[in-house]
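pinning this so it doesn't scroll away 📌
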Amino acid sequence: MIGGSMRRKVIFLLVVLLLIGAFIGLTRFLGGRTGTNGELRVDSQPTASVFLDNKHIGRSPYKDKVPAGEYTIKLTPESTVDSPASWQGRVIIGSNLLTYINATLSDSELTSAVDVLWLEKISGRSSEISVTTNPDGATLLVDNETKGVTPLSVSDVPAGDHTLTVTSPGFAPRTLKIKTTAGYRLIVTVKLALSGEPIPTPTPEEEISGTPTPTIRVTGTPKPTPTKTATDSATMPDPKKPFVTIKDTPVGFLRIRKEPSTSLTQNSSEEVGRVNPGEKYHIEDEQTGWYQILYSGSNEGWISGQYATKTE
């Protein structure tokens, strides 16, 4: 009797262990099916090593499943001929969704172009496109129809294939073939490359003609408006520490924003002013990647830390 009782106890324990093992295996299996991973694709010219949070995960063209989350991604060109510059940025990889990066890397960051696209679930069955650019203030066209300037969100976009074009004076235009999906917002960030072409500026004697408007000749030379220059700033005493010094920018100035964001909602990216390279401003506050400065006497606004050097 004792031996039979022990056997029943052993069999019972084995059954319990098997059930626990089956439960764990089923949980892991279902966890993989519920979408803890997203897909990351990277194309680049030239071929580049791909790093995710400083971990080397492969080389372009790259395609693989990656745990959903937000990452720092870096592309380091493998070419040693032209010594193209590396590129680094932030990407979001959604569960069961695709994140796509397409980069054309050149000899400097300013002449490199990079597109980053990913999907974001929204309520309803419509589809949307949200576009940010570097530099911002670029003209956005969807299917050759001008929608406005970036950052910009376009709602009620028909699901399907579209052409997205971004243009900005002094930069090479960028055209993307995209596909929108019902119930999702397509997030697009575009880094434009300097075109290397001079930006045409009208001279006082340039003729402005059109049809049927008659030709207009500008004969007067407008009186220049006094502006604060980087040279003026250099001769002035430094503001109270900590302060920032504005760096050179591709467009020749740096936008001051209402909030430390280029968000596409609630007008948080509204431009409230501009500052020039070489100028220095006291830092009132700071957040990751942003400085709040005091300008024009008593006005406050936020500037991107990408184009500012901090002095403490």
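📌 and the second one:
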Amino acid sequence: MFPKQDETVPKVRFKGFSGEWKKHKLSDFLSVFLEKNENEKYTKHDIFSVSNEYGVINQIKYQGKSLAGASLKGYKVTHKDMVIYTKSPLRDQPYGIIKTNKECSGIVSALYAVYSVNEDICPDYVQIYFASDNRLNNYLRPIVNKGAKNTLLVSDDGALSGTVVFPDNIKEQITIAKYFSRLDTLISAHEQKLDKLRSLKKSFLEKMFVNIQN
């Protein structure tokens, strides 16, 4: 689906699309969004965490509680279809992760960068593009410096200075995003089925045998 490192034509293509993909700065598609929760319109119930596995997700739903302090005025506002960059290193993503807000309006920690998208890019495509750890790390490595205690030193604007290879045809971006979304849905359905089978097996292991009490 994606091109080799120095190519601008992908090896696999959906029918109806042709031509080269072009190199761009990510700043050609994203802009820093500066709105903050100064009027405290959003509460601790509106805080998002950003997970590599689950993407942008409500913090209480994801972690079971809010980790926010007393004041939320410094938190950054994000709306649906905005892109969020977390400046927090993970094991396989040592320079942070980039995800699209597929939820609703809410707020995120001031340590995150929030971006609005222009009309030339499909928001979901941005998340799919950076879903590959290799592609994500190759993009961020040249522009992120690591400080003391493994902190990531890069400005919100600076994180947009790297080069990406995107199709200019937004219909192709949407087609790719929808394809991977269907795959994610299919994977999730099979994982749920697998969890049910594991629970069924555990139940039968406990109930179908006579235990001897010592």
